[in-house]
Amino acid sequence: MPATPATTPRTTRTALRRGLAAAAALPLLIGALASCGYGSQADGASDGGADNTANAAKNAAPKGPKLSTDTVRLGYFPNLTHATALVGEQEGILQKELGGTALKSTTFNAGPSEIEALNAGSIDIGFIGPSPAINGFTKSKGTSLRIVGGSASGGVKLVVNPAKIKTTADVKGKRIATPQLGNTQDVAFLNWASEQGWKVDAQSGKGDVSVVRTDNKVTPNAYTTGAIDGAWVPEPTASKLVSEGAKVLLDERDLWPDKQFVITNIIVSQKFLKEHPDVVEAVLRGSVKTNAWINAHPEQAKTSANDKLRQLSGKPLPADVLDSAWSSLRFTDDPLASTLRAQADHAVKAGLLAQPDLTGIYDLRPLDKVLAAAGGSAVPDAGLGVK
Asked: What SS3 class is residue 70?
């Protein structure tokens, strides 16, 4: 939403009203989101799921013999960080691996609702960020889910108003948005701020820098009205802000070894994994083949993902936003387990999470089997796999 120049008294009043409205809305958002706690939301805007059965991809009808169940129910976000699911469904790759077992997908805009759906048996397998996966696993005392594969890395940036912030030192004293108290990006920003020597109260967001927890759908308007000075956010929100005149001050990839950190994993309910391992392997085969196709055909894959987003939301991403966001993502089968462990440690350091026992959060045996059959190598679980 480009800002309208205040060339007349009327437009000036309109801009002022927008700014006041955005500023007034932010405290309400903070109060509502703060009650959710660590890992309660990934790159989402609101709770709830939408059944995508009517948006089935072309040529994706079930064909061939069924596996051990008639239907597998998949959950994911309508977001580029979940492009493995978007492209895998759009191109029919996931359904092809499932044969006569039907793929039924549901989209979510928030981590808690997807975890709740998994726990309730409304979905069987899901693509989700690290914080909600950690939260779901720890809240259930290790009984609810397993991470069975990776999907995406990267795609998070600190973007700022270049008129107010020119160097990292300038961030001190400014208002920086994150998606939600305790979500993956919020924890990353708090950890980065701590490494700069700044003091911030994690719960209130007050301190040497003001952390303003703001829904990703609201963040672009908050930026254009001046209610925030920048944001530590995932794609495509970061690129949307750039299209509004913001500048990238820091790419989170630069803070991690090999410039890789998990942004999206594949989870499955432990009950479904036990009862239908053949279906889980089929979905993982589809995921591995989808990632290989994405990496081999990035331009086609980018278009495919945007076509699926158009089906789901009625509106594709603009070309400049799509190109910028896509270039910062890497699609990988490796769940990058060591980075999930580090993200949990950062949340503990910030006081947002009690020291968790994450032993058993991974079961990578089905993925390793799929990778071996494709001539690949096993991936590490950082000592957090099932014993």
From this structure: coil
